[in-house]
Design brief:
The chain is an all-alpha fold. It is 63% helix and 3% strand. The longest helix has 21 residues. The C terminus is likely disordered. GO terms for molecular function: (3S)-3-hydroxyacyl-CoA dehydrogenase (NAD+) activity; isomerase activity; lyase activity.
Length: 227
């Protein structure tokens, strides 16, 4: 359920959003690192291979960005090569690298998209929503498909597997603090504007329409007790 974290970020960079602004918004929200710093840490080879698997199996749920492959062609593959979205000159210290703009512009050209002026005006709150609401949507699919039984299990997975800030209770707990109706409306708007990557799944749509929380009361009590 975590792959939209980087996928949405790559989409918005193609549409004109700044790499480092996205990472800053995510770390201020409480993540240990933003999606681009995370991609550097993991390595682009892993990210591209994983992305291809998702593209093959879930083509409607994946945004195919050429940014990582383009950077890899120039031996930029993250921390291991000391250059990725950031440059690394000493002991993993990450510094922004203006050189990435040439890859972004080429990726944008290959995707046939232009910068969206609306995205340039976004607040950090807006950026966090655009990065994490697709994660919530995917988490709802995981529940709907029976891969996970309880939303609280996904909260625990998001904290220990993704680094989601524990004080926010997990990704589904946080989603309920915002409301399924609001999340669904945002995803629906972005679907019309940016494509099917954001299309709300039936599980989320049903709960938004009926005003049903994503996490049950008993699960909320468990999270409040142990998180």
């Amino acid at each position: 359920m975590f792959f939209p974290y980087t996928q949405s970020a790559l989409l918005f960079v193609d549409l004109g959003m700044d790499v480092y602004k996205i990472d800053r918004a995510c770390t201020k929200f409480g993540m240990p690192m933003g999606p681009f710093r995370l991609a550097d840490l993991v390595g682009f080879g892993v990210a591209v291979a994983t992305g291809m698997q998702y593209l093959e199996n879930f083509p409607d749920r994946v945004y195919k960005s050429m940014l990582l492959p383009l950077m890899m062609e120039d031996k930029r593959a993250g921390e291991a090569t000391r250059k990725g979205f950031y440059k690394y000159e000493d002991k993993r210290k990450a510094s922004p690298d203006p050189e990435i703009m040439k890859y972004i512009e080429k990726s944008r050209s290959m995707a046939g998209v232009s910068p969206d002026p609306e995205l340039m005006k976004l607040s950090e709150k807006d950026i966090v929503e655009m990065v994490f609401f697709p994660v919530i949507n995917e988490a709802c699919r995981v529940l709907d498909e029976g891969i996970a039984v309880k939303a609280s299990d996904l909260d625990i997975a998001s904290i220990f597997g993704m680094g989601f800030p524990p004080y926010r209770g997990g990704v589904m707990y946080w989603a309920d603090s915002i409301g399924a109706k609001y999340i669904h409306a945002k995803l629906d708007y972005w679907t019309k504007r940016y494509g099917s990557f954001f299309k709300p799944c039936s599980h989320l749509a049903e709960r938004a329409a009926k005003g049903i929380p994503l996490v049950s009361k008993s699960q909320l009590q468990f999270i409040d007790t142990y998180m």
